[in-house]
Amino acid sequence: MSNHPDHEHSETEHAHTGEAEHAHDAHNHGGNTHEGGHGDHGDHTDHSGHEEMFRRRFWVSLVLSVPVIFFSEFIQDIFGYTAPTFPGSVWITPVLSVIIFAYGGVPFLSMARTELKNREPGMMMLISLAISVAFIYSIASLFLEGTTPFFWELVTLIDIMLLGHWVEMRSVRAASGALDELAKLMPDTAERVTESGDTEEVPVSELGEDDVVLVRPGASVPADGEVVEGESSVDESMITGESRSVGKEPGSEVVAGTVNQDGSLRIKITKTGEETTLAGIMRLVDEAQKSKSRTQLLADKAAGWLFYVALGVAAITAVAWIVATGYNITVLERVVTVLVIACPHALGLAVPLVVAINTSTAAKNGMLIRDRIAMEESRNLDTVMFDKTGTLTKGEQGVVGVETAGDWSEERAFEVAAGVEGDSEHMIARAIRDAAEERGVQRASVSNFENFRGLGVRATVDGETVHIGGPNLIEKFDIERSDGIAAFAEEAGSNAETVIYLVHDESEVVAAFALADVIREESRQAIEALHAMDIEVAMLTGDSEDVARAVSEELGIDQYFAEVLPDEKDTKVEALQSEGKLVAMVGDGVNDAPALTRADVGIAIGSGTDVAIESGDIILVDNNPLDVVRLIKLSKASYRKMQENLVWATGYNVFALPLAAGVLAPIGILLSPAIGAVFMSLSTIIVAINARRLRSADISVPDIGA
To answer: How far apart are CA 126 and CA 164, in angstroms?
Structure first.
């Protein structure tokens, strides 16, 4: 089972541009940038601050842009209206534009410094180049005859870029809390046993080796140790990922963070602090997150090339027009038009719009995207590795078989067993009651109920005594099982199923129930659908070889790894990756956290522990393995939209830049800066419309076996 940490990729991986990294540098939100594909949870980055900053600047700039656009002469000419005039009205547009440039545009200039310093031109330098040229030209046009300012284009460009970054930060935002969630499993204090035999409450940090602590029912074990007194069962699911509680008695080992259930235990501490199993898992999570490779997005690469192309075309344009006409205002206008046309309106929104729609579409289908790089990578997966318990299975005991003896029918056996187990909260009792309910069997009325630790329970039904318990029960009464029940128990044991016996009158085994972790109904369909997509399916489990083989054969899994210890799970993922495979890990427990972060795509089951969900790039809210298939289909559809948008956004520049440079001037076609800006805005609208078409993408999972 798993928990979930929030993976933040390297900031340079974050968006169409990597501007998140620059935003961190420019605004001192700091921390070290994460090297990890899933993010370094050791150095958490707070994206909520950037999201709020871009949101605030967008709305302020948008409000100030309205009068700029309304009073723009070009806009008035286009729409055929005349704005009212009054003393000072002529300064509304330039003054507000300067404010918008300083408030909404300067952050991009700050972020561009990082690209310039790293000599890696990208979206930030391209945006900064465009808004700076637009700003300087528009200010100059106030004093130069024969020029037309286009402050409206400057402010709308800034607004659109701020909107794109707000959308981006909103989709990227995540709280990298894996290690914090792991730490929460540890209690703050412990009851240390004194030399006099009394107990004293002390901080866990003060515990040392050989100290003895008292762990009461319902309390967490404060450190790794060995039971020296008492008997109980301990819930180790958050560490082992397996659903059955583990019985503990003197000599048994216990692990920090696990929960004692029904009996008091005195435990001698053997490991504390960084030496505990839980601390080891925390280190694995941290190391796995740091081991990711960096990924650059297509839009950033496109922006980098476009930056050089824009400068090159602008230089060629200047030289050509100076040679043709001499140095005059026309040359300046041509150069400005080229640089404004290169302004990445559409390119800046090509990816964020798709990401935003992708995120909302995924959420509506029970998938929470915490790391968009992983979402995009999902389209290339060739191997999906599932944790068994709680993922492919329900993580709870269920009756998978029943055998009766003598004249007892299955209905009678369930009627009596469900009655005897009527008030117990033990997982086996719940499984028997649920199985009886599914069969429509009414519970028998019982009396004189008694619980015998280690043996089971006893009650009176219709004046006769019945017992329910495991092998220890029939050994105590020295009861011989019928051949049918003995064979049934042997087969169940070979499949690592738990066998519970119903004993009548302390002398006859009248029924046997086989219990096992129940396979989810959706698991088979999900695996068939993945196979249809040419994706291999692997399974990890801490269970025995017999259990792993049985589940694997039933579901048609390609390969499985059994008896895997918590600190081995991520190495299994790494082994598959070393074969050149792109691996997704699906899990729902603390012990899955290192594997989730090690995988190329970490998918956490939503009902799992908090650490698994914090470790996952993508969270499946509904615990449905079919959502893994939907995720991959949505990833493919989203990437197609990104490609289409990028092709259009960059293709537009390939077409528009020569026009802006004036290659068709000999035949009377000359693109003014203002008209070029209009065309650029139209390209943005087309990109937005195409992104919205993602909402209608078909991500349903066909029932291949039907």
So the answer is: 15
User: What are the DSSP calls for 438-480, one per residue?
Assistant: HTTPPPPP-EEEEEETTTEEEEEETTEEEEEE-HHHHHHHTPP
Strand partners, 193: 199
The answer to whether residue 387 is catalytic is yes
One of 6, 159, 286, 387 is an active-site residue; which one? 387
* pLDDT digits 0-9 by tens, 13-47: 333 333 333 333 333 333 333 333 333 333 333 44
- d(CA 241, CA 237) in angstroms, rounded, equals 4
pTM above 0.70, yes or no: no
Task: Find how far residue 590's CA is from the centre of its chain.
Answer: 15
Query: Taking the chain (706 residues) in consecutive chunks of 10 residues, what is each chunk's mean pLDDT?
Result: 36 34 34 33 42 89 93 85 89 93 90 83 77 84 76 83 72 47 75 90 90 91 92 75 72 87 90 77 54 45 73 86 81 77 65 74 76 83 90 83 92 93 79 91 89 82 90 86 92 81 91 88 91 94 80 91 83 93 86 86 73 72 85 91 80 75 78 64 75 84 66
- 492: number of Cβ within 10 Å: 21
Neighbour count for residue 151 (Cβ, 10 Å): 30
Q: Helix-strand-coil percent breakdown of the chain, rounded to 5?
A: 55, 15, 30
* Cβ(466)–Cβ(503) below 8 Å: yes
**What are phi and psi for residue 540, nearest 5 degrees?**
-110, 140
Closest-CA residue to 505 (of 454, 467, 549): 467
Contact 430, 400 (CB under 8 A): no
CA-derived radius of gyration, the chain = 33
- pLDDT tens column, 338-396: 777 766 556 666 777 777 777 778 877 777 777 777 888 899 999 999 988 778 888 77
Torsion angle in degrees (nearest 10) through CA of 81, 683, 122, 18: 100
Please give the sequence-ordered ranges of beta strands (E in DSSP) within 78-221, or none if there are none. Answer: 189-193, 199-203, 212-215
Q: Is the dihedral of CA 580, 582, 588, 591 positive or negative?
A: positive
Q: Copy the structure tokens of residue 412.
A: 């009678």
Cβ atoms of 342 and 309 closer than 8 Å: yes
Instruction: Give the list of residues 6+ apart from residue 568 with CB closer than 8 angstroms, or none.
Output: none
How far apart CA 543 and CA 565 sit, in angstroms, is 10
Three-state DSSP class for residue 229: strand
Among 471, 476, 465, smallest CA distance to 486 is for 471
Say how far apart CA 551 and CA 546 lie, in whole Å.
Answer: 9
DSSP state of 402: E
